[in-house]
Design a protein that fits this description.
Elements lengths: L17 E4 L10 H9 L4 E5 L15 H6 L4 E4 L13 H9 L3 E4 L9 H10 L3 E3 L18 E7 L6 H14 L4 E4 L3 H7 L13 H8 L8 E4 L11 H11 L3 E7 L4 E2 L2 E5 L3 H12 L7 E8 L5 H15 L3 E2 L5 H12 L1
Parallel strand pairs: 1-2, 1-3, 3-4, 4-5, 6-8, 6-9, 7-8, 9-12, 12-13
Antiparallel strand pairs: 10-11
Helix pairs in contact: 1-6, 3-4, 7-8
Length: 346
């Protein structure tokens, strides 16, 4: 696994292993925290728990909180990232189940666990912790725009929840496997849970967001790479501000554009069409040049998870031919991914 992010959050180590809570989710894209932990920290996950009516599953055993506690779980993680980061009322009884069973609660929502009175009271009664990882560091600066030492790669997306985190994690691991000093830099709640530290960019006050991105990837040795987890999309009607702050503050030398094959409409905003990969590359390079005139696009990460192997290969080859750039699905690996890594490091 990639190197962990230095502890930018002042927090105690998270209680592990985890029981993953899926709420009442019926859209897989909104369960990206649960899937991210399953795929990148599977050894720390004992099972899943959900409301009646949920249709999304990680494939882990369905366990009640008492069962999970008997199997060694120490906390239940809210594995959902829904629009607005809210905690609906129908989740509360199940969250209370976890506290009653002796599990701490970990949340990555905009809604703070300790601000929900029944949870706060139950935590006191049962001696449990309510831990919110979507809490930015104190004292973040306004961005300076100063060029920093070291090298940086940022994953940029055509939309939310389509592979920016997985791509950054895969590239970090690939760099390390080649003997390159590299760190994965987490910018969202799932990445922070995986890596153990980072900055939740969408929880930072807007004036300090680019400064937070500078803090996330500080000065480093000339040969060091920070591989930075992207957020949202520069074309997203709701979240473009977070994406732009991250782009300006990261000052990436290299971007990798992430896209899900076949996705045509914005997740949660179906009245907006996705921008093309070409337009996304152009926009990111024009805006990114403001703080790093040498920015370049190394290639494209194409999410082909819904395709069989042969169809995925054809999609990757066709996209590479159209763009004239390396294209790969990092989760499939292979020669195409090796070419993408080569292009990043060129």
């Amino acid at each position: 696994m990639p190197n962990a992010v230095p502890a930018l959050r002042e927090a105690e180590p998270l209680p592990q292993p985890y029981l993953l809570f899926l709420g009442d989710v019926t859209e897989p894209g909104y369960a990206k925290t649960a899937f991210g932990l399953r795929d990148w920290a599977g050894e720390r996950c004992v099972g899943e728990y959900a409301c009646k009516g949920a249709t999304v599953t990680t494939g882990l055993p369905f366990l009640s909180p008492p069962q999970a506690r008997m199997l060694g779980a120490r906390s239940m993680v809210i594995g959902v990232a829904n629009p607005g980061g809210r905690i609906p009322a129908n989740w509360i009884p199940l969250l209370l189940d976890a506290l009653h069973a002796g599990l701490d609660l970990i949340g990555g929502m905009h809604a703070r666990l300790a601000e929900i009175e029944p949870l706060r009271n139950a935590a006191v009664v049962h001696g449990r912790r309510l831990i919110d990882v979507r809490e930015p560091p104190v004292g973040l600066p306004v961005a300076s725009g100063r060029k920093r030492s070291g090298r940086r790669l940022l994953t940029v997306g055509t939309d939310c929840a389509l592979g920016k985190k997985y791509t950054a994690l895969s590239l970090s691991r690939a760099f390390a496997s080649r003997g390159i000093d590299a760190d994965f830099r987490a910018s969202g709640q799932t990445g922070i849970l995986i890596a153990g530290g980072g900055v939740p960019m969408d929880a930072v006050v807007a004036d300090f967001a680019a400064g937070a991105a500078e803090t996330l990837s500080p000065d480093a040795d000339a040969g060091h790479w920070d591989v930075i987890e992207g957020q949202g999309s520069l074309s997203h009607p709701a979240y473009a501000g977070v994406s732009l702050a991250l782009l300006h503050g990261s000052q990436p030398d290299v971007i990798v554009v992430c896209h899900e094959h076949g996705r045509e409409r914005m997740l949660g905003h179906p009245h907006f069409a996705l921008p093309s990969v070409e337009d996304t590359i152009d926009l990111a390079l024009r805006l990114g040049a403001r703080t790093n005139p040498a920015i370049r696009c190394a290639g494209v990460s194409l999410n082909t998870g819904a395709l069989d192997a042969a169809t995925a290969q054809r999609a990757i080859e066709a996209t590479a031919a159209r763009l004239g750039l390396p294209v790969a699905d990092p989760m499939r690996g292979g020669p195409a991914f090796d070419r993408l890594v080569d292009a990043c490091l060129a």
